[in-house]
Amino acid sequence: MEETAGRQTEKKVVAVVGGGLVGALNACFFAKRGFEVEVFETREDIRKAKIVRGRSINLALSHRGRQALKHVGMEEKIVSQGIPMHARMIHSLSGKQSPIPYGKKGQYILSVDRANLNKELLTEAEKYSNTKLNFDHKLQDWSAETGIMTFVRSDGSMEQIHADLIVGCDGAFSAIRKQFLRRSRFNYSQTYIPHGYMELTMPPINGEFAMKPNYLHIWPRNTFMMIALPNLDKTFTCTLFMPFDEFEKITTGDEVIEFFQKYFPDSIPLIGVEALKRDYFRLPAQAMVSVKCSPYHIGDKCVLMGDAAHAVVPFYGQGMNAGFEDCIVFDEIMDRFNEDFSAVLSEYTRVRVPDDHAIADLAMYNYIEMRAHVNSKWFIFRKYVDNFLHFLMPKAVIPLYTMVTFTRTRYHVAVERWHWQNKVINYSLRLGAVGAVFGGSYLLIKNPPDMNKLIIPTEKMWNKLVALKTP
Predict the structure, then answer these.
(1) What pTM, to 2 d.p., does this model score?
(2) What are phi and psi of 129, to 5 degrees?
(3) Residue 309: in which H helix or E strand, if any?
């Protein structure tokens, strides 16, 4: 009996593969529950590295991510290091700037620095005595049956460990997920979009932001766009999203300036002519991939989270937020099933797959919205209609962006509700337009105008139009 009790109270080992944003946060969640947590990261410790390799697109932290951070006591600290963005600021070709609010007054998303957030989460995970961070550990092989993992280090040495649960948080090109691909009935797809991205920096002017800081600035140009997010050092990180063949057409510094003068003229004096000529060729345009797969688990031994399960393109600002929400959803399911991995993992797949697939599709859609729809008067009109109806009936009508960004409404439920609301609102607007036509016609019939008074002004207008057409 004593031996059995000893085995039952022995702490289970959770191996988190990947020390990025989702991996580091996951370590905090598991450590808080009392598991023995081992984090394995291929790279060196970014807190000590001179150069941090990897993606650097600025992140937009919103409600889902904040709730996950709050659960491990990190929300206030991270929010204090971010810059609130209350609206999109649309830059027209003429240089005119027009704000489109994200939601109700007081609602905002936060521009946060990826590398700094990763460092803070690693430091927080390390505070738990039951957590160990292992850097320079590249996964070579692992077994779903035994839970044994083999890692190789840069000096050629190897290490084996046994884990009760393996959590794959190792990104869009996950080494953990490769084992899933060898198994039957595992669905997997990846899609590279034909657009790439390139980052440029807009420096401060006289020690202050070059543009209004509390906005996500967008230069929408229909088939491509540029965005700019504020940083704590008073710079803006500008990201140009464009088809690869358009990037490849520009081969000289003069062609860069010519391109920017044509499409983003107001940004040239803010970024700087010489900086544009230099930075445009510093790195080639980077690719963006969308990954979908299912199931997210193998038995009771392994589960995928974050980009390893659902890499999304960055156009809804939900990649990190969805990954962070993975952690809190898994944690909630752990509560429901009393930490029984055999039940938790299958339930996590059942609950999370439809939501992650929905946000992947929404992220694709939002690129079209950001680069093209925001130029449409109908789009702006509908935004105001949706927000007005939300103000009048906050529970009955909720804009899609509000559901995705400022609530934890399940992604796939938000999409279904959005489609339903669109049908109802569009039908109501058409009905209203028809009613206005019939109402106006009725009034004209009941109170016909004096036609003699209408004919003369109409003739004058026609003559003016003819004069305009005449060369």
Answers:
(1) 0.86
(2) -65, -20
(3) helix 307-310
